[in-house]
Amino acid sequence: MKQVLGYFLGFAVFIVGIHALIWWVSGMPSLADIPVTRFCLAVPIAMIGLALSLWSIIYMKQVGKGNPFDAMGHEVAPRTKHLMTDGPYKWSRNPMLSGTYLYYIDVLIALWNWRAILVFALIATVMMLQVHSEEKRLEADFGLEYLDYKKTTGRFITLKRHSR
Question: How confident is the model at residue 73 (pLDDT cuts 50, 70, 90)?
């Protein structure tokens, strides 16, 4: 039940809720108000972001034997049991968050509104606090293995892989 709750909360907050909040603070424009070029640019970025996040969640469940929803040190769903350094985690220590940021950037492009950018900045700040909290937990859980991984893999993207 805890796993279902974690996935439901993640979907409700990160996929639906934050997008809705950004749309709401932007004056709730209709799709017809969004220029076609911005819409056509935003949609593929959203799809790439969602695909990266979904790949990360599936990989975390299969390889890490856990779930992604751990909020500021409070376990909402069972935590990972294995450090993940391959798959999407080969290119980012936080591929799920990288995908989520891409997903939010699509709405920023579509709405092109300073209020949307402000909400994104606030959300990104809160998410960065979560990343710092999670990194401390991963260091405690996985020790030197995680510290070595941090040396070779960027927080959001790794452009050049170093051999380990």
Answer: low
Domain range for residue 9? 2-152
Q: Please indicate whether residue 81 or residue 94 has the higher confidence score (pLDDT).
A: 94
Q: CA-CA distance, 135 to 83, in Å (whole number)?
A: 12
User: Is residue 56 situated within a structural domain?
Assistant: yes
Residue 28 corresponds to which amino acid?
M
Question: Which of 95, 106, 112, 111 lies closest to 157 in space, CA to CA?
Answer: 95
HEC profile for 70-138?
Answer: EECCEECCCCCCCCCCCHHHHCCCCHHHHHHHHHHHHHHHHHCCHHHHHHHHHHHHHHHHHHHHHHHHH
162: its two tokens: 């170093």
- Specify if 122 maps to a domain: yes
- Paired strand residues for 71: 74
